[in-house]
Each structure stands twice: as C-alpha cells, then as structure tokens.
C-alpha cells in the first residue's frame, strides 16, 4: 500500500518568514495530493491540492510543488502570519482509490 | 449549512460501556469515512464506506462497527470501551476517487 512520509514534525518560524513542509510517497500510481490544515479543536480542511499532471500550483501565499520522478511534494507558505499556526497534513491518493493516505502531520508555529 | 456534522462533540464514558457517534453529510457524496486521531495527531483510517461497500482497516478491533442507514449517514458504534479508545474521532465524506475529503469537527472520546 501507499506510504507517506512527512517532515518536519514541528516547524517554528517568525512572522513574515517562509515555511516549507515536505512529503514523500511510495506508490508511483498516486496521482492526487491534497494538503490539509487542522486548527485547534477542528477537523482538517483542504487548503490546496495538486494532481500528477501539474508540477506546481499557487494560491495567494501558499504553493505546492510536485516532483513525480522523485516522488515528493512540498507545501510552501510565504509571509507567514500567526493565524497560519496549525497542524498541516499532506496526503496521497492512488488512481482509482478513494482512501487518502496521510502523512503524520507538521505542527507549524508562527511567532509574532 | 455544515457539510459534515458529527455528534456529540465531546463524549466521556466509563470503561466497558457501549457508545455511538453519529455522522451526517449533506454534500451528496458516495463515500464516507471514519478516522481516529491519537494524541500525536496521527490520522488513522478506520473504515470507508462507498456505495454499500465497506472497507475495514484490519487493525481496527471488532468492537468498532460502522452502520450506514443511508448514503448521508455513517454512524460509529463502539462496544466494551477501553482506556486506549480515548482519542478524537473524525467522520469525513468524499466525492469519489482522487478527490478531497471533507471532515467533520471531530468527537473527543474520553474513556475513564
């Protein structure tokens, strides 16, 4: 089955800095890669996703890159703000599957 | 309108009791899931239910059972609760293969 590794487990940055979270996956048949943000006391919510036919996608301060050859994808947050503090999860879905495999999460702390 | 709603939000119960968590989605999705999130924030898939096909994570004890009265509902029943069952349980729904999952707000279960 698919295996998703996520690093780092904790990331502490100053407000205004950039934050990068990296994930690797094992199944070359995976073709959909969502990123979720989980705020305290809430369920994970999708913030951005990318499909295997795209190398990069951007939405305001967040961007995701995908390297299919190396089987890794990354989340980039620029100009971080305190409200970006949360746990972030990457996930991967294999083509034809409806069960995402999640990484173990990254706790992002943005210090004002 | 809440897309995926689960009740109760908090549940405190004694060891040995039987309890249920309800979940409803109004997104018209065919797929629903139950996830368990432990204290380290790891999201573990417990069950997925798609068009009456139930896929069970083999590591889930058979004290846990999902019940789907219709496509919009997937309830979780837990028998003979144990201390180790304490966690946050998330219900989610999805539109099909290779698409995002929408999560409920979670149910924090505490077994004492």
Question: What does this 3D model show about the protein?
Answer:
The complex is a heterodimer of chains A (112) and B (112). Chain A is an all-beta fold and 112 residues long. Chain A has no helices and eleven strands. Chain A has strands spanning 4-7, 10-14, 19-25, 30-38, 45-51, 56-59, 62-67, 72-77, 86-94, 101-102, 106-111. In chain A, the strands form two sheets. In chain A, strands 2, 4, 5, 9, 10 and 11 form a six-stranded mixed sheet that branches. A five-stranded antiparallel sheet of chain A has the order 1-3-8-7-6, with no helix packed on it. In chain A, a hairpin with a 2-residue loop joins strand 6 and strand 7. Chain A starts with a strand and ends with a strand. In chain A, 39% of the residues are buried. With 112 residues, chain B is mainly beta. Chain B has no helices and eleven strands. In chain B, the strands form two sheets. In chain B, strands 2, 4, 5, 6, 9, 10 and 11 form a seven-stranded mixed sheet that branches. In chain B, strands 1-3-8-7 form a four-stranded antiparallel sheet, with no helix packed on it. Chain B starts with a strand and ends with a strand. Classes of the chains: A mainly beta (112), B mainly beta (112). At the A-B interface, strand 4, strand 5 and strand 9 of A face strand 5, strand 9 and strand 10 of B.
């Amino acid at each position: 089955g698919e295996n998703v590794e996520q690093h780092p487990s904790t990331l502490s940055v100053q407000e205004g800095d950039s934050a990068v979270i990296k994930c690797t996956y094992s199944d070359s048949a995976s073709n959909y890669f969502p990123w979720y943000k989980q705020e305290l006391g809430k369920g994970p919510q999708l913030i951005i996703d990318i499909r295997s036919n795209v190398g990069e996608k951007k939405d305001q301060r967040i961007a995701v890159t995908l390297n299919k050859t190396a089987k890794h994808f990354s989340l980039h947050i620029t100009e971080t703000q305190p409200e970006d503090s949360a746990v972030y999860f990457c996930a991967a879905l294999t083509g034809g599957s409806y069960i995402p495999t999640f990484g173990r999460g990254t706790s992002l702390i943005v210090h004002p | 309108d809440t897309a995926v709603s689960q009740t109760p939000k908090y549940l405190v119960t004694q060891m040995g009791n039987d309890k249920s968590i309800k979940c409803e989605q109004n997104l018209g999705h065919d797929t629903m899931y139950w996830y368990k999130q432990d204290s380290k924030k790891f999201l573990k898939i417990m069950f997925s239910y798609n068009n009456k096909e139930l896929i069970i994570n083999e590591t889930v004890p058979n004290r846990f059972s999902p019940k789907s009265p219709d496509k919009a509902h997937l309830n979780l029943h837990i028998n003979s609760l144990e201390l180790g069952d304490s966690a946050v349980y998330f219900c989610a729904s999805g539109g099909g293969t290779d698409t995002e999952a929408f999560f409920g707000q979670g149910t924090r279960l505490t077994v004492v």
